[in-house]
Amino acid sequence: MESKLPHVGTSIFSQMTGLANQYQAINLSQGFPEFDAPDFLKTRLAQYSEQGFNQYSPSSGMSALQSQIAALVARRYNQTVEPESTVTVTSGATEALFVAIQAITQVGDEVIVFDPAYDSYAPAIELAGGKAIHIALRAPDFRIDWQQVTNALSDKTRAIIINTPHNPSAKIISQSDVAQLKNLLIKHNLLLISDEVYEHMTFDGQRHFSALLDEEIFARSFVISSFGKTFHCTGWKMGYCVAPKNLSAEFRKVHQYVTFSSFTPAQLALADMLKEHAEHVDELAQFYQQKRDTLVQALQPSRFEILPSEGTYFLLLDYSAISQLDDVAFCEYLVKEVGVAAIPLSVFYDMPPEDKIIRLCFAKHTDTLLRAAEKLCSL
């Protein structure tokens, strides 16, 4: 049969994790925490399951969780949203991204995507019959050229996808970026899909500029977040989308035929976690900043050039002084010969530059980070 996604194969994340397991390498490739979810959250999950909350939840989410998400939005972004009509719980942020793209993309539509980009964006756009218009952000600053964005717009442009804090560059969009984005959205009547799964991981006192902070931007936005990232439970596949009532209605039309509903006892456990342990969210930035600083300090003696990490739990390294291998080959060398698994940056691009940059995940125990750094410093 003819493939609907002929250029899509096994993801680089699965490949590198497989190699890490095969060679017993330290896995700093795939973006998942090495540490466990909070004990409170696990205990509540077990309690709700034991109490029989194991059947379908309402498709848009358990009301208790919707209410706590709305309270979180109000506390963090001073934005009032109506839980029942604007908050939709999803089976992970990737599902929410897929559903938002399917809900708004018609055949022939164009959606602006900034590379390096999360690898689910373009396939979802293509499956909806649209076309991803890739705008490349270049190392080392990975800043958006808004004139280039303006030049890429056409009468077919439907939406822009923004990811901040940004995976894989670990950059945060600025207030100036937000102003220019807002101007384009309004002037050209565009929608925004705002991927904010690392929203609580910003470093050095920098502010996360959520689409929820501006009424006019939010009026045309799908804001997507991840409990898996926030509470170290990526395997639960729990996320959510906050959007205005009219956009949420379209989102839910698709969502009900993708997963219908999400893990019921986990929803109730997460609602309790948000209500009774809000400090976890507030402390997350400092928690990950310490891990970033540990890895950066340990890599100082190395021959890598360390690029700034402003948010997320990723760090980019330029290996130009070490090897002339392309980044895919260099990552294979690292895992097989050095014992550390990383991700090549080129896989996040439609048209990869010739940069020699790799991505490390520092959502790991301190001992793991120090052992990996020791190996990398040996190069």
Automatic annotation (TrEMBL):
The keyword Metal-binding does not apply. Its cofactor is pyridoxal 5'-phosphate. SUPFAM superfamilies: PLP-dependent transferases (SSF53383). Residues 25-372 form the Aminotransferase class I/classII large domain. GO terms for molecular function: kynurenine-oxoglutarate transaminase activity; pyridoxal phosphate binding. It comes from the Bacteria. Keywords: Aminotransferase, Pyridoxal phosphate, Transferase. The keyword Transferase applies. InterPro entries: Aminotransferase_I/II_large (IPR004839), Kynurenine-oxoglutarate_AT (IPR051326), PyrdxlP-dep_Trfase (IPR015424), PyrdxlP-dep_Trfase_major (IPR015421), PyrdxlP-dep_Trfase_small (IPR015422). It holds the Pfam family Aminotran_1_2. PANTHER family: FI04487P. Belongs to the class-I pyridoxal-phosphate-dependent aminotransferase family. This is Aminotransferase class I/II-fold pyridoxal phosphate-dependent enzyme.
